[in-house]
Amino acid sequence: MALTDLARQMGKEIQASEEYKNLNAAKEANDNDAELQDLIGKFNLKRIEINTAMSAEKKDEEKLAALDAELKKIYGEVMSNEHMAAFNVAKQAMDAMMNEVTTILMMCVNGEDPDTCNPHSCGGSCATCGGCH
Predict the structure, then answer these.
(1) Which one of 18, 31, 88, 122 is at 20 to 30 Å from 78 when CA atoms are compared?
(2) Has residue 132 got a pLDDT over 90?
(3) pTM of the prediction?
(4) Is the dihedral of CA 92, 98, 101, 107 positive or negative?
(5) Torsion angle of the four alpha carbons 53, 56, 58, 59, in this order, in degrees rounded to the nearest 10
(6) How far is CA 33 from each of CA 58, 72, 82, rounded to the nearest angstrom?
(7) According to the model, what pLDDT value does residue 120 have?
(8) Beta-carbon neighbour count of residue 94 at 10 Å?
(9) For position 123, what pLDDT does the model report?
(10) Under 8 Å between Cβ of 89 and 27
């Protein structure tokens, strides 16, 4: 079997995983949450407003501080939304799974035994680390 065929099979297995399913369900819940989408829209508009204010020849530091405070408030509301919180948990689980897969592949590329390499063992060098488990 060609490597590209194996990669496609791995893609199918990833899409069949609980991590993938949970992440997609969380994305869908975010997309269907009108309040969250409104907050995200407000956040994006506030970011544009800040960028515009920062681009002005004469910056109004008080206005920038007020806009920054508003942006942080909206961000807090977005992040405290139950659907966004669930999305973040699902995203972290998916990222952890993908880091493990990538680490195993990189270990094999670096000559380690595919049957025994352990992505959770620490060699002491952070330069080659795939992240702590």
Answers:
(1) 18
(2) no
(3) 0.77
(4) negative
(5) 20
(6) 39, 21, 10
(7) 81
(8) 20
(9) 60
(10) no
What's the half-sphere exposure (Cβ side, CA atoms, 13 Å) at 73? 8
CA distance 92 to 84: 12
In the DSSP assignment, the letter for residue 128 is G
Tokens of 87: 């999305």
Sketch out the chain's domains with CATH numbers: 17-128 (1.20.1500)
Mean pLDDT of 51-66: 92
The span from the CA of 10 to the CA of 5, in Å, is 9
As a whole number of angstroms, the distance between CA 64 and CA 46 comes to 11
User: How many Cβ atoms from other residues are within 10 Å of residue 23's Cβ?
Assistant: 21
Count the helices and strands in the chain (H runs, E runs): 5, 0
Contact predicate 83/29, CB 8 Å: yes
The type of residue at 86 is A
> Is residue 128 scored above 80 in pLDDT?
no
